[in-house]
């Protein structure tokens, strides 16, 4: 029989990581090329190619999880041994904006081997904005150029208003004739599509304030130069752009941990302090509001 969870007093709070010994937390960014993980109290401890062994199979391709068991084995191998024995971590994991419910379910299934007590998903674009310290009250355009996937996302009040993606990234440069000029052209066309679709003026306001650029593409001077010329707008490169998504997920993890309802290893959410909407885990059969564009948008 399972013992009833202990309930802390309403005034009880978790101590800040790494001083809190009750909890374990992991922020995870499983990209097509590399997987990065931030562990509470230790920082970024995993930055490895997203491959399984033997055979060097790639379980995530173009932002899509194609091999759930393979990804689960890889995560257990590179993260599981770095967690305290018998730990039940709270996990925040990034997902592509247009991945849909199927991809979020696949990611949750892959991290199940880490025995999480809770799994929160956050779009990579929102994680980037968190890492950049962007004002959530202002509309922002986020451009995330990864190794095999590029996303353009319009955020307002922390929610996704519109999004575009293309299965093209820095790993495709110089392959099959792909150039920085071609990538900049494709990306600019996605931004233009967001501007045409918008009827609120928020996209134009976001463009004028500058585009947040993250991902490995932000480390390519030729690409960033061509993007600036094509977008005719300021380009703000997020600090350490290649790790921005996992660092943003870590910020969300810390926010969830600091909330009075944070779940201790031996307890559950405080009955009088439900998690705020920004960190609340949704029912399994419902999409997270953060992870989908507003109705009527792509």
Shape: globular
Q: Approximately what portion of the residues adopt beta-strand conformation?
A: 15-25%
Q: Kindly report the spatial arrangement of strands forming the biggest sheet.
A: 3-2-1-6-7
Average the pLDDT over all residues and give the rounded result: 82
Distance between the termini: 48 Å
The beta-strand count equals: 12
- What Rg do the Cα atoms give? 19 Å
- Order of helices and strands, N to C? EEEEEHEHEHEEEHHEHEH
Instruction: Please identify the structural class as seen in this structure.
Output: alpha/beta
Q: Quaternary arrangement of the chains shown? A: single chain
Helix content: 25-40%
Biggest sheet character: 5 strands, mixed
Regions with little confidence, pLDDT below 50 for 5+ residues:
1-12, 17-21, 261-292
What's the tally of helices? 7
Descriptive report:
The protein has 298 residues and is of the alpha/beta class. Helix 6 (221-231) links the parallel strand 11 and strand 12 (235-237). The protein has seven helices and twelve strands. The chain has helices at residues 68-78, 100-111, 124-132, 180-197, 202-209, 221-231, 244-258, and strands at residues 25-30, 34-39, 43-49, 60-61, 64-65, 90-95, 118-123, 140-145, 150-156, 159-166, 211-214, 235-237. The strands form three sheets. A five-stranded mixed sheet has the order 3-2-1-6-7. The protein has a five-stranded mixed sheet with strand order 10-9-8-11-12, with helices on both faces. A two-stranded antiparallel sheet has the order 4-5.
